Amino acid sequence: MSTEVKVPTLGESVTEATIGEWLKQPGDAVKADEPIASLETDKVALEVPSPVDGVMGEQKAKLGDTVEVGTVIATVEEGAAPAKAKAAPAAEKASPAPAPAPSPEPKAEPSDASLTLSPAVRRAVLEHGIDPSTVKGTGKDGRLTKEDVLAAAKARGKGAPAPAVPSPAAAPPSPAPAAKATGERRTERVKMTRLRQTIAKRLKGAQEEAALLTTFNDCDMSAVIAARAAYKDQFAQKYDIKLGFMSFFAKAAVLALQDVPAVNAQIDGDEIVYHDYVDISVAVSAPNGLVVPVVRDCDTKSFAEIEQAIADYGKKAKDGTLTLDDMHGGTFTISNGGVFGSLMSTPIINPPQSAVLGLHRIEDRPVAVNREVVIKPMMYLALSYDHRLIDGREAVTALKIIKEAIEDPMRILIDL
What we know:
By secondary structure, the chain is α+β, with helices and mostly antiparallel strands. It is about 30% helix and about 25% strand.
């Protein structure tokens, strides 16, 4: 019997998606709840599971097709996968060995999750000459990620000869020409994912609609660094999570947003919407681009709860399992470009929010303290804001509150 696989409900206000990747091909064995396709929406990528055990049937949509909620995109034939052809029974009594036919499981069929390679991973495999069957995947269901391939290439050592050609599961339909040998220059056109298109549209829209302005300050990180060094082991032992910088900045931002409500507000038509809670969107790098899951109720959460929420979102972003609910809402955003080495930037607000805090790398710099030059671990802070709603005085005040709370974390504890 054939079972239809339909596009699931995608979330509030999301009615369609794009077929981003087929994870199973016709004839592949599938289990109930095993992902068979990846869909890309305006906000996240999500996987469509098989409703039953069986065999992958017809794919009713192609890669890149736009499909609406409820559309049938594939079928699954219930029952076991077709058995492998059995070898003839041994006819010669002289052969003591059993016939080779009772099919031993193949080591890694192309349908195996670990060898279902995304286009980016496939390109990395071919570029570095890595056999994907020899690399342990860290993605969801053991799938290889681009980072897994790069790590394997690095471990192999620079200048070492490449291993054998990758397995057929990873090879493209037709081999690419040896461009490096001939000196040929090539270009590649790749259609933007729906998520990337939406990111581009939203950021451009923010520039065109909002009156963007950025105010800067610098921050002495000595106190936070000292606090982490003193309590990180006890913190990890008690809460089973690392004590990071982000929780300090989230709690410092709470103080600022409560004292300057406009920075936590948004414009809706000709009205201003103020929030009596603080939901912070934390920018996280995902395989398909930058995403901003929301850590809710930061004004009531503890340091450990904030760190745990951020860690969970980071893992889900890497595995590609963030949901629309994870992304919905948010009253303020924190983006940490420092993890990539950024010294200073002007972050763009995440509409309909009105402000975003940009964090940057920490570096030792000479600063004047009590008329003496000393070396301090300093970080530049940037607050971009919508000047239609937030005055310069309010923006500067909010950033100053964040700076002072980081330089003296006791302010966070006594709500000052």
